[in-house]
Amino acid sequence: MVVVDRFSKMVHFVACNKTLDASHVADLYFKEVVRLHGIPKTITSDRDVKFLSHFWRTLWAKLGTKLLFSSTAHPQTDGQMETVNRSLGNLLRCFVGKNLKQWDLILPQIEFAFNRSTNRATGHSPFQVVYGSNPLSPVDLIPQLPLQNYSSDGNQRCKEVQRLHKEVQELIHKHNLKCQKTANKSRRAAHFEIGDQVWIRLRKERFPPGAFSKLKPKADGPFRIIKKIGDNAYQIDLPGDYNISATFNVADLSPYYEPEVPPTPAD
Fold it and tell me: Which part of the chain is the Integrase catalytic domain (predicted)?
């Protein structure tokens, strides 16, 4: 389980089995995340059955946490998590080596290294954003001559942390604008209303393994829009035999136009 803080970019890597149900995942979340950072205001996750379960929704509703979900087969909705997952995969390949079955023993070291590294969006490491400074690493324990004296005044330290947080917010805002500008170059504007008829694009990622055939159509429809979910996602009135999520990103929707009937020639 990978947990990322949206502001500081601090991560927590928690080893678990795919077979764990929602109650066990919640236990891990409280033990590894809540005990350090408290109850979150929002949680963004994919549409795994654990996170869509009645237990998970009820638990966080009681705690006042708002649950947000990414669109099915559209990981760009939570690009931050996708970036961290790629970095985690690269780090595991570097550290694990031939000990493939001992990957979970390396997670604490990888988490420490990740949180101590400078993030491109914030310009600082997650440790610096959360605690105001980087923790000591084994290299830092080597005796060195002091290069400068640091003030121990608490008020000054508080101002430094506040200045750092303001700087991080500005850098995150600039980075998000840059990413948004890049993404919008290839993004088409699409707005639908409830009741509109649309074509849906069928991706093989939406179907369980083995259920999608190369001979299946690339698109289907028309289907009626029954709910608007934000500006980029809509819920479609799908037939029950599809057995997939009915929430689609606008990138997978196309407007349906009634075919023009040619005029009948006069007798």
Answer: 1-134
List the CATH number of the domain containing 225.
2.30.30
From the list 94, 81, 56, the residue with the least C-alpha distance to 2 is: 81
**Which residues span the domain enclosing 65?**
2-119
237's CB contacts (< 8 A; 6+ apart) are 223, 224, 225, 226, 246
Backbone dihedral region of 175: left (phi > 0), alpha (psi from -120 to 50 degrees) or beta?
alpha
The whole-number pLDDT of residue 127 equals 93
Of 80, 97, 119, the position where a domain reaches its end is 119
The list of the chain residues with pLDDT below 50 reads 147, 267
CB-neighbour burial class of residue 5 (10 A; exposed 0-12, middle 13-18, buried 19+): middle
Cα→Cα distances 160→135, 146, 194, Å: 17, 21, 50
First to last CA, the chain: 72
Domain boundary among 119, 148, 181: 119
pTM surpassing 0.85? no
The Cα–Cα gap between 251 and 253 comes to 6
111 and 203 assigned to the same domain: no
β-strand pairing of 253-255 with 197-201? antiparallel
Residue 142: the pLDDT is 62
pLDDT score for 261 = 60
Strand partners, 27: none
